[in-house]
Amino acid sequence: MTTWIHRYQSLLRLLVCCLWAVSGLASAADEAPDAFIKRLSTEMLDLVKNDPALKNGDIQRINGMVDARVMPHLNFQRMTAAAVGPGWRQATPEQKARLQEEFKLLLVRTYSGALTQIKEHTIAVKPLRAAEGDVEVLVRSEIRGGAEPIQLDYRLEKTPGQGAGWKIFNLNVMGVWLVDTYRSQFAQEINAKGVDGLIVSLAERNKSNARK
Amino acid sequence: MRIFLSLALLACATGCATAPASASRDPFEGFNRSVFQFNEKLDQSVVKPVAETYQQITPQPVQTGVKNFFGNLSDVWSTVNNALQLKPVPAAESFMRVLVNSTVGLYGVLDIATELRLERHSEDFGQTLGYWGVPSGPYLVLPLLGPSTLRDTASLSVDTKGNLARRVEHVPTRNTLLATSAVEKRARYLGAGERLDELALDKYIFVRDVFLQKRLSEVWDGEPPEAAQSQDDPPQ
């Protein structure tokens, strides 16, 4: 009896997995990068609008949301590598993991403040200028609702493998590319104190931020 | 203006050798850093407290009215600069904004134009020069005014003339207007300033890199060419 249930359960699980994979394949493979950004940013905006804790900048909750809903759509290793610059190649796998973790915490701080500003805003994605078969594209969008629209652009890469979809590897807010903003500062830390020095500085910054 | 320029030259003569050889865009880093420190101290001791008090004692509708009023003045100057850059639609929209807000919007206190979906297209004379190909030149931090570039510093005198608040004949009124405008502007960035302290490993570099990127983007209306964006590129 128990083996029967067991077998049934695993069959069911397999079936669900298949269904999930197929639906995932279908939606991801067919989805154009601008449609992906439209869907993702609308989802995010709705999520924040309907969640008072997120809107009030509850950092714990925002961290959870970022891990669950944002990180899967980012190539965060590429973002960190670009921000760290040439020093990235010298870093050990452990150092790379630490750098990503600390950089993520710092960025979540950066943008958590913006969430409190969201009111009746909407997202407008501009027409895509990309050729069929491009593996990297730029998607431009605007947050509308204030006097002046807020520019929000994304650089996306097509992930390898069939139907894997798109991942964001840089973000531009009001004309400023996020990854580029940290490049000189990180380079300065690495030149002065090495990769470990940069990790320590980032960790200290995040620690003192957490105390506030 | 001349004072700034000669100060900059002086800084180059004295500070160039000692300044860390970071970016080709910031040859006066030593000088800039000291002005940056000065501005920071002034902000902490005077400007920020005044802005905080303004924010606390002024009712929200009044704050919005003040912001809209100065926004309307800036739309006037944006209209001129959009025209100088031969951008007909933004120029016309800016002009319509001024027209609507100055009349129906009671001298700009109400931003009716935004409700009518007339978007703001901010342009100043530095952007106009940039549009016509004048390079930004080195990064400069100006006393009181903060981050700038050589080009934008040079165009300040024109921008000043374009600021209607400065054209008021009655001196006390003019000074009140200019002071209010400065405090209002600072009050808007109260949250952002606090955030900057949390984000930066080196606040000077952070502010510089963000400012230069943002300025470049503004000159190109949000779409700067790829080559100009790379930070390691030598200046043209």
Write structural notes for this entry:
The complex is a heterodimer of chains A (212) and B (236). Chain A contains eight helices and five strands, in the order αααααααβββββα. With 212 residues, chain A is α+β, with helices and mostly antiparallel strands. Chain A starts with a helix and ends with a helix. The longest helix of chain A has 34 residues. Chain B has 236 residues and is mainly alpha-helical. Helices cover 66% and strands 3% of the residues of chain B. The two termini of chain B are 24 Å apart.
Q: What is the topological layout?
A:
The complex is a heterodimer of chains A (212) and B (236).
Chain A (H helix, E strand, L loop, with lengths): L1 H29 L2 H17 L2 H4 L3 H12 L5 H9 L2 H4 L2 H23 L6 E4 L10 E9 L5 E9 L7 E8 L2 E2 H34 L1
Antiparallel strand pairs in A: 1-2, 2-3, 3-4, 4-5
Chain B lengths: L1 H14 L13 H29 L2 H25 L3 H16 L8 H4 L9 H7 L7 E4 L3 E4 H5 L1 H7 L8 H18 L1 H10 L3 H17 L6 H4 L7
Antiparallel strand pairs in B: 1-2
Helix pairs in contact in B: 1-2, 2-9, 3-4, 3-9
